[in-house]
């Protein structure tokens, strides 16, 4: 029986805990985590592991608002993730830190919509990192405090999770990852198994097909020349 595949793209602002979340998924340190003074993820990194009976491919992307990366390079890297996720993305995980939802966070969401279209939110889940900052507050109350954040969660079908970054607790992280993957599975079912594909992704897939066909044709021509 084939293992179900899930291709997941991690998106978010610099130093929100995207790479740490990726490491929590796999239970090992495969993505470089940014230090105190600089952001490490400056190009897309793609890793695949088997997690909870699924073949998980995670694509970690550069953080939005990295002051050492110009806008065009960021766009190029974010677009590159489309190639890495071919033939399609099952889920975008938008990573937000538990803190005030400011204009910068709103701009991150605007950039995501601009790069991937608003259709991407149909395939998105919000993950709040540093959940220890909640203390006794419920996630629902935190979301409802801000109109824009509430609207974003609604656009994502109400799908949101909280991850605690206080300490490396493998067992606890494992349970949180399992819950998140269950949410993604339900979302895939709601989307009738369809994956996110935009025009860029379709063009990339088409280009790969054309290149493959071209290589096959070239090989056939070489064989024909040898036979003559």
From TrEMBL:
PROSITE patterns per the UniProt record, alphabetical: G_AIG1 (PS51720)
Pfam families hit by this protein: AIG1
Keywords: GTP-binding, Nucleotide-binding
Residues covered by the AIG1-type G domain: 3-205
Gene Ontology molecular functions: GTP binding
Domain of life where this protein originates: Eukaryota
InterPro entries per the UniProt record, alphabetical: G_AIG1, GIMA/IAN/Toc, P-loop_NTPase
Family: Belongs to the TRAFAC class TrmE-Era-EngA-EngB-Septin-like GTPase superfamily. AIG1/Toc34/Toc159-like paraseptin GTPase family. IAN subfamily.
Identification of the protein by name: AIG1-type G domain-containing protein
Species annotation: Oryzias melastigma (Marine medaka)
Taxonomic path: Eukaryota, Metazoa, Chordata, Craniata, Vertebrata
């Amino acid at each position: 029986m084939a293992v179900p595949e899930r291709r997941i793209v991690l998106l978010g602002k610099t130093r929100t805990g995207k790479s740490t979340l990726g490491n929590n998924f796999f239970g090992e340190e495969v993505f470089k985590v940014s230090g105190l003074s600089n952001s490490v993820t400056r190009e897309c990194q793609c890793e695949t592991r088997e997690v909870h009976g699924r073949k998980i491919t995670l694509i970690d992307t550069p953080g939005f608002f990295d002051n050492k990366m110009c806008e065009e390079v960021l766009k190029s890297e974010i677009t590159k993730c489309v190639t890495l996720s071919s033939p399609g993305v099952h889920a975008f995980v938008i990573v937000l830190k538990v803190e005030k939802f400011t204009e910068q966070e709103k701009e991150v969401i605007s950039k995501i919509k601009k790069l991937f279209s608003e259709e991407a939110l149909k395939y998105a889940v919000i993950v709040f990192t540093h959940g220890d900052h909640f203390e006794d507050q419920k996630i629902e109350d935190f979301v409802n405090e801000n109109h824009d954040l509430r609207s974003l969660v609604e656009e994502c079908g109400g799908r949101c999770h909280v991850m605690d970054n206080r300490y490396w607790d493998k067992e606890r992280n494992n349970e949180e990852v399992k819950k998140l993957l269950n949410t993604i599975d339900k979302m895939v079912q709601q989307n009738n198994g369809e994956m996110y594909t935009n025009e860029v992704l379709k063009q990339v897939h088409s280009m790969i097909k054309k290149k493959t066909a071209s290589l096959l044709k070239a090989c056939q021509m070489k064989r024909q020349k040898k036979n003559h």
